[in-house]
Amino acid sequence: MFFNGMMANGVNSTQAKIMYAAVYRFGPRWAFQYKPVCKDCAAVPYYVDRFTPQFNEIEFEALKNQITDTDPSVEQIEKDADQLFNQSIQNLEIGLPKFVQ
Q1: Helix, strand or coil, per DSSP, at residue 96
Q2: DSSP string, 46-78
């Protein structure tokens, strides 16, 4: 909706994708699970109610350059941002373990 709103207001497609990627990658996430990757972590998924990743200027510049150079679809931007997000939380201690029987 954010991307479509920018397009409807006449924002250039590349600029709209860059802004969308920034919000999608570095904005808050709600209700998700992840599995920590560390030798001392429980081998169960962690459940997180809400988490806002820290903005990383170097990563943002790389995203911006990728969008400018390759003109990906919004779906591809989401896929790439999700992968970066998942990599960035692997060693964080956020959320609570969710034990499943």
Answers
A1: strand
A2: EEEEEE-PPP-HHHHHHHHHHHHHH---HHHHH
Amino acid (one-letter) located at 8: A
Q: Is 90 exceeded by the pLDDT of residue 48? A: no
User: How open is the CA angle 11-83-56, to the nearest 5 degrees?
Assistant: 65
E strand or H helix at 24:
helix 13-26
Distance CA 63, CA 88 (A): 15
81-94, pLDDT tens digit by residue? 999 998 888 767 67
Taking CA 17 as the corner, what is the angle to CA 15 and CA 18, rounded to the nearest 5 degrees?
Answer: 65
Give the CA dihedral 21, 25, 28, 33, nearest 10 degrees.
130
The whole-model pTM stands at 0.81
